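Example 9 (inverse folding). The structure is encoded as follows.
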């Protein structure tokens, strides 16, 4: 009975987490479509869509990068498969964001787009982020992972570079209201620090010691 319950927990929890991730990640898109359909986008609808897709891309990228550090901190292995899903949703929103900019805002005019991007440092940082996310999304499948071997892990570490560039993009465009990009930068720095090998090993060691102590206490209570 106990093993059956454990087995159910082992399959049901990842499945529930997977469903919750898909639903949660699609909510911003559904809300944009809803507001478009019912004429509830802001006074400047294109800017509204640009800001909402950009924000969603940034949050999902951050959440994707948070899975490994959360596993290191709390031993939540179930989060590991969600990195890919969250990363792909981040790329989906980044693509919609970039598409809104080049299509809805600049009417796919190459001259205007080039001018707009190269005149604004924040747009260059946004473009660089998008160009870094592109190979990560394309190689996120099992076939590429097998083919690239060790290089796959090295390539996917670029997700952190993309997150830093996305932070710069955000910082550059807020014009004085630095609190949100600074909170993002602080969280990203913590996530990066947790992954540094000596820090990571120390955390895992402390977590194991704590679990052992707690288990010892609960068996002595019985
Ligand atoms: C071709 C690439 C990109 C271009 C041209 C671009 C351009 C823009 C523009 C024009 C804005 C609105 C600025 C304003 O009106 O105040 C914006 C906002 C934003 N973008 Fe991008 N972007 C790009 C890529 C990205 C990527 C890849 C991410 C994240 C992963 C991102 C995250 C954001 C965020 C977080 C905001 C601000 C949202 C807010 O203030 O709530 N952008 N971007």
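The amino acid assigned to each position is listed next.
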């Amino acid at each position: 009975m106990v093993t059956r319950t454990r087995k159910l927990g082992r399959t049901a929890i990842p499945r529930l987490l997977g469903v919750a991730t898909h639903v949660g990640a699609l909510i911003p898109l559904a809300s944009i479509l809803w507001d478009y359909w019912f004429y509830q986008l802001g006074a400047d609808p294109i800017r509204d869509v640009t800001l909402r897709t950009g924000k969603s891309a940034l949050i999902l990228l951050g959440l994707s990068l948070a899975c490994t550090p959360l596993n290191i901190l709390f031993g939540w292995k179930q989060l590991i498969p969600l990195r890919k899903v969250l990363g792909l949703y981040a790329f989906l929103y980044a693509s919609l964001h970039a598409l809104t900019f080049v299509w809805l805002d600049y009417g796919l005019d190459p001259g205007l787009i080039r001018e707009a991007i190269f005149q604004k440092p924040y747009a260059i940082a946004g473009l660089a982020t998008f160009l870094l996310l592109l190979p990560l999304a394309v190689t996120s499948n099992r076939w590429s992972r097998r083919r690239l071997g060790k290089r796959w892990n090295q390539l996917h570490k670029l997700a952190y570079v993309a997150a830093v560039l996305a932070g710069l993009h955000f910082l550059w465009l807020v014009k004085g209201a630095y609190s949100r990009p600074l909170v993002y930068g602080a969280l990203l720095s913590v996530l990066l620090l947790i992954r540094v090998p000596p820090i990571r090993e120390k955390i895992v060691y402390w977590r194991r010691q704590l679990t052992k102590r707690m288990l010892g206490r609960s068996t002595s209570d019985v």
